Amino acid sequence: MGACGANEQELFDQGVTQLEASEYNKAIGYFDRVIEKNESNTSAHNAKGVAYFQQGKFDEAIVAFTTSIRLDSSSYKPFFNRGNAYLEKKAYKEAIRDYNFANGLDPQQLDIYYNRGLALLALEEYEDAIMDFDIALQANPNQALVQFNRAKAQLGNNDPLGGMESLINAINLDSNNGPAYYLLGVTQMSALGQKEEGCANLKMALSLGYKEAQTWVDDFCQD
């Protein structure tokens, strides 16, 4: 059946196909046609928000997610998605609020814990951030970014040994993580006085293109 005579579900499915193909404007066009047929189609509003989000149009995405929530507040997805848009806008308190709603609706969604941890980390709520990262890692400890951000929360929480352990885990999972080598080197030198080990990691960070390590190498690691 051609698009002109397509029904609501067919239009939605075509929109999802365009969304998955990164054809975001085309996807929005299909979702708008779904909404013209049924303005109460919460999935279309949510999916339209995802298309806007992928384009970096976070304000438009928030409007779409909010409409989806207003029509049906029983799904975690638009709350989670709106939280992600707020996270991108650095509106961390608003993001946490939405992640809390999403978590209450579906506690099994592990991405909620990680993303809420990022927002808590940004607000320097280190202990709560660590708790969320720990939950994400319980399900799968082999997540380099979670280990890395957990390390940042631990260092912020004055736990250099725990932070170093998490940084080593992150590096073992992703040997190209320059910022992890940098943080590990700085912590080794500043917290434990381990100059040789710290300089080796700072130089590794620099070799991976993490230029912030240059000052430390110049100041402390010259032979």
UniProtKB/TrEMBL annotation:
**Which SMART domains has this protein been placed in?**
TPR
Keyword Hydrolase among record annotations: no
Q: Which residues cross the membrane?
A: none
**SUPFAM superfamilies associated with the record:** TPR-like
Pfam families linked to this entry = TPR_11, TPR_16
**Per UniProt, which keywords does this protein have?**
Repeat, TPR repeat
Q: List the PROSITE patterns hit by this protein, alphabetically.
A: TPR (PS50005), TPR_REGION (PS50293)
User: Which residue intervals correspond to the TPR repeats?
Assistant: 8-41, 42-75, 76-109, 110-143
Instruction: Using the record for this protein, list the coiled-coil segments as residue ranges, or answer none.
Output: none
- The name on file for this protein is Tetratricopeptide repeat-containing protein
Naturally occurring in which organism (per UniProt): Belliella buryatensis
